[in-house]
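How it folds
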Amino acid sequence: MKKIYLFIFVIFWMLFLSACTNDRDSGKPISNLTMKVGGVVKNFNTITVKEVPYADYSDLIITARNNENPTEFVTFGLGKGDVGPSNSWGFEYTLNGVFYSEDQGINGINSNITTNESNKLTGTFSGAVTSSENIIIELSQGAFNITY
């Protein structure tokens, strides 16, 4: 009988300890932005959202940094609450100090904002960005899921 109690006690403690491991959500929202740059998948996991209020509306400025390469980041803006196609603006991609920006006249970014409410942003994007030396980089399969 003591073995049964010991067995139950050990099982109970194993279940209790496994429920308390650090792999659970720590309460901090998980946000990410992914895209392909020249066919290579890039993951951006450090994301900040800055709200810029105006009299009648607010803009959101999103900056996403690549944890594996601190010199690689993406910045873009959108109106708070705006959803639908082509609602982002000012798309910029920086890699190793080289700045690539959206050229809305020639090579624009096609975006579709699907969620923009309750501190949650989701959407997709693709298109080209151009450096000051006229080097064009294709961005594809871009997606973001941001909680701020």
Summary: Confidence is low (pLDDT under 50) at residues 15-25.
